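Sample entry (371 residues):
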Amino acid sequence: MNYIRLLLLNLVLWPLHGWSAAVEVIDIAGRHVTVNAPVSRVILADSRMLLPMSLLHPGDPLKGIVAWDDSLKTRAPDMARYFTRSAPKLSAIPTFINPYRSTFSVENASALQPDLVVFDIGILPRLQNEGTLALLEKMGIPAIFIDFRQQPLTNTPLSLRLLGQVTGEQQNADRFLNLWQSLLERTAQRVAAIPQSQWPGVVFENHAGMAGDGCCAVFGRESFGQFIPVAGGRNLMADKVPPQGGDISAELLIVARPDVYLMSGADWSQRGGTSQAVALGYEATRASALPRLQSLMQRQGVSVLSADKSMRIMAIYHQFYDSPFNVIALEAMAKLFHPQAFADVDPQADLATAYREYVGLPYSGLFFLQP
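Predicted structure, serialized as tokens:
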């Protein structure tokens, strides 16, 4: 009897003591992975995953993170500074080179005694070819793959729920996904009522100005390109480049004659080289960002398009392409494509609400910009 009482007491106190249990999950790559959940020591192969982790742990975004790559430092320094204001220990988290640019060290990872390593789906072939996944398995370190980037409309809810499972924060994951789903459905329903003959032709330039003033890398059918038809636009580059995108000539751009020209931008001042990008993000203002946008529209090829005063132009924060907040970028695109149908939609206000109510931090910065 005493044993039974003790067992029942332990079950009640389980969450309080942080006990974990073996749980099998299926990741975005379709892999069956056994994890001791909830995990308490996590390595993020992309530190920009901080944003989805902050949705799972509102007010405590660094919870459980024992190491991550250098993407925050090199690709999103403004995001790092934004979160550092409320989580000053951020800069003390051990950092390694992004595994797209260097071999992921299983030996170094093992020394941190992680419960889990989280990768994005795009690096799966490399990790398989290098034998990294097999070595992680041999060392008894579980690894899962998530995706907010390649197939965002399909994999965002799957990825966030997966992270919710392994961290024991399913409730917070589902809470945010209720918002995500409602914004997606509102956009899709309104677009469905608009004849496709009224959909504008769209070109979406990827990381405009990041490596100087050249032109142009564009999104294909995937990533940001997947949002174009859902927002009620015709992706003019869908059949011109690979699904994840590619470079095009100025001549092809001019021949395409888009009705809408989009470009992604962010603070890339720390990645090396000279960036001419529209530095949208947590510290941007219209005054600081507008001159960059105007300058980029004067590049060879693009200047021919910008001479058409009827063409609509917008810069969008690049990090939306790999974020659960991608649905708000979708809203902004739909409003630009069909201003009358989305006259009452305010993406900036929705973004502020998301940070306040789901991240637990005040909104700051500028994430969309039109001339």
